[in-house]
Design goal:
single chain, three-stranded antiparallel sheet, two-stranded parallel ribbon, mainly alpha, 5 strands
Length: about 220
Amino acid sequence: MNKLVLIFIIINASLGLFSSLACSAETPLQPVDPIYHFGYNDREHSYSENFKNISIVYGMTWFFYPLVQPKVFHGAGGIKNYQKNFGKLVFDQDEPFWNEFIHPITGAQLYLLYRADGYDRLRALEMTLISSSLFEFTVEIFTEPASVQDLYQTPILGTVLGYGLENISMFLLNSDTTMGLIIGHLINPATLLPMYEGRSYLIPLLDEKDKGAMIKMEFNF
C-alpha cells in the first residue's frame, strides 16, 4: 500500500513538473519594468493643509533668501531697511531681467509645486499669489519695499508660464524616453518630490487567462 502511494506521488509530481515546463516553453514569463504615467490628481484641501503648505513655502523663503542676499543680513543695516520698507508699496526700478524673467520663473515653480500637491489650476494660482505676497511684504523688504510689478508678475505671469511648463513636462515625462524624463523633471522638478500625487504606473499582467494591465496609483499625503 505504501509503495502504491509513493508511486502515485512520484507520478503526480512528474506530471506537474512537465506541465510547468510546457507552459514556460509556450509563454515564458520575464520580468517587466513598470511603465510610469505622470499627471495631476486634483483634490480638495482642508484649511489646515493650506496653512501647512503656505507655512512650509514661507519658511523656505526665509531659509533661501539670506543665502542669495548674504550682505543684507550682516550688521544693523538689514534691520534698518526692514523697518524703513515695512508697509511700503512702490513701482520698483529693477532691471527687466528680474521683473520679466526671474520673478515669472519663480512664480511658475511655485505654481507647479502646488499643482504637485493636488491643487487644481485655480487654487494653485491662489496659493502662489498668497505665497508671493507674503514674500514681498515680509521678506524681500530687507532689500527694497514691496513691488507693484512683482505682486502680479510673480503669480500671474508665473502661472501662465507654469501652465505651459506643466503641459510640456507631462508630454515629455510620458514620452517613454530617457531624454524626455530628464528634461521633463528638469523643467518641473516638483514631480520628483514625495508630495507629488500624480504618478501612477502600469504593470502588464502576463497571465494566460487574464491578459491586460494592472494600474496602481501612488498617493502621498
